[in-house]
Request: fold
Amino acid sequence: MISIVLLGAGNVGTHFYKKFKVAGQVEILQWYNRSLSKLQEFKNEVDITDNLNEINPNADIYIAAISDDKIIHFSKEFPLENKLFVHTCGAVAVNELSNKNMRGVFYPLQSITKEAELDFANVPICIEALNKQHIELLSTLASSLGSTCYKVNSEQRAALHLAAVFVNNFTNQLYRIGHEITEYQSVEFDILKPLILETAKKIQKISPYMAQTGPAKRNDRKTLKRHHKILKKGIQTDIYDLITKSIKMTHGIPPRTPKKQ
Reply:
């Protein structure tokens, strides 16, 4: 049995609590959050606190589900010492944590919101620690969630986090722009959803490079011009042109040579 204390009640912390609560190999000793109101609904299930000086000192692992911007400061103000203190951030190196504790990383590489159901079988957990014993402990903890575990160092994790921004956050923003374009023409965005799913499914079998289609790859200049006429001037056009240029460069399509006067 692995005993843990959860630190933070945001999206990640809340999903961890719900899953660890039913995991047979894990005992949640305590849940800390700086605002106790977020934990009140769980007060009859687990020991809750908003006081760092009341943190239970007997856990095997202290999991800090704190935002990237705040985790380094939090690791310094955390009152216990010589404990296994791990963060869940994508972009913070393990050595940036305070060295008064034994440091590690337990990073779930997935888009996580409180309201959406989450199947941890589809959540890769990237772990890092400074000794083999802690790697094995974090690996066992990931297994208790039903997740696949990957041993990843800080530099590799930073690269994965950046790549995740492109394939998730940026892609979602492109969905939003697509939604805006369809709304402007009073057509249902739902018509595009099978295409979104097919695109995601396709790259499970072939590389993104091989999966690329569309007018930019085909260099369909007339279609590109038609799209320009539909787009609102400004940032939508800038994004369209930049991504079109990127696709052309990737697939070796030379830039158009201006006609001589």
Summary: The longest strand covers residues 26-32.
